[in-house]
Amino acid sequence: MGILKDTCKSVKEMNCKYCDSENIIKKGVRHNKQTYKCKDCGHIFVANGKFSRMRNDKHIIVTALNLYYDGLSLRKTQRNLEQIFGEKISQVTILNWIKKYSRLVKEYMISQVPQLSGLWHEDETVIKCEGRNVWFWEMIDEDTKFMVASHLSNTRTFNDTVAIFKKGFEQSKVRPKAVFVDGCNAYYRAFNKVFYTLRKDTRPELVQRVGVRTRETNNIVERLHGTLKDRTKPMRGLKNYESTKLLLEGYSVHYNCVRPHQSLGGKTPAQATRMNVPNNWKGLIDEATKHEAILLAKVFGEKTEEKQGIKVVSK
User: Fold this and answer.
1) Is 255 a domain residue?
2) What's the confidence (pLDDT) of residue 9?
3) Is residue 263 included in any domain, yes or no?
4) pLDDT at 300
5) Which residues contact 92 (CB under 8 A, 6 or more apart)?
6) Is there a domain that residue 264 lies in?
7) Nearest to 279 by CA among 313, 301, 256
8) What pLDDT does 286 receive?
9) Which domain holds residue 300?
């Protein structure tokens, strides 16, 4: 009886690995391990202290992400993991971790609302991908150094300019006060398409300068380009366009949430914007997993209600 009581108590104290709910029950034994089911999100899991659907320890995965986005190549990341944890992980596995959690955390970050100064600096730079030049667009908030949006494209056209502005609007949820750009002709039309409003009191300003004067307004984002080039240099060129998109999304997450900035007094840009998000990859992955599970449970619940409604009507 005592053993059963202790077991029940441990179940009550346990939270779902996906949505962090306490509403869980036992769901039999699989491979000699007790499994549990969450009654809120419906996921079945094993309480092994690892990330969902992963075999390796979460500390190994978090360390791999930190080493990679701090500037090490995949080969050096692999060697450091073996020296630290005694685990030999393939470079393909490490890359899959990076792509998986970069996408997951980026989607979670879009749902968060930063408190920005409203003064955005936008510029683009050239990076090597698949043996050719592609454009990487970056938009940064002046006071908080928060990367509001990023975009990878093969061209530098009106549609690409619209895309970076829309991403910034999607992340901030409000229009900026002013956007500082260079003399590219595509900016004016794209800016009006995304941000124009009939109300003069909320209408943003486009500050466009050409030549040497551009450096006076865009030196912040130019410095950000330098940080990006420092990261891509050890990679000796990016091999796949779609993979590059995911890696750069993870780079923006690391820059905003994990990497402290000296100009911000040791804070991350996310902390400077008062976003209630963790400042490490482990916490970000946990929160992103919870966010995804809640969204999926909500969608599944809506579909179930629709099916029940159809059955009632048919009767």
Assistant:
1) no
2) 42
3) no
4) 72
5) none
6) no
7) 256
8) 93
9) 52-111+280-315
Q: For position 226, which CATH number holds?
A: 3.30.420.10
Positions in the chain whose pLDDT score sits under 70: 1-13, 210-218, 234-237, 301-315
Longest dimension (CA), the chain: 80
Q: Residue 216: what pLDDT?
A: 54
| Phi, psi at 287, each rounded to 5° | -70, -40
d(CA 42, CA 101): 22
Closest CA to 256 of 129, 123, 134, 102: 102
Q: Are residues 90 and 126 in the same domain?
A: no
pLDDT of residue 284: 97
Check residue 107 and give its pLDDT: 94
- Distance, in Å, from the CA atom of 99 to the CA atom of 123, rounded to the nearest integer, reads 25
In this prediction, residue 210 carries a pLDDT of 63
**Do residues 160 and 79 share a domain?**
no
69 and 6 co-located in one domain? no
pTM of the predicted protein model? 0.84
How far is Cα 266 from Cα 285, in angstroms, rounded to an integer? 22
